[in-house]
Amino acid sequence: MVPISYYLVLAAILFSLGIAAYLVKRNVITIFISIELMLNAVNLTFIAFAHQWNKLNGQIFVFFVMVVAAAEAAVGLAIIIALFRSRQTLNVDQVNLLKG
Amino acid sequence: MNELVDTIMHLALFLIFGGLAVLAALNLLLQRHPINSALSLVVVMMSLAVLYWSLGAEFLAAAQIIVYSGAVMVLFVFVIMLLNAGEEERTKGSKIASIAGFPGAAAIFCLLSFVFLSEGHKLGLSHLGGSLDEATSNISQISSLLFTDLLLPFEVTSILILVAILGAVVLAKKER
Question: Does A91 contact B109 at a Cβ distance shorter than 8 Å?
Answer without folding.
Answer: no
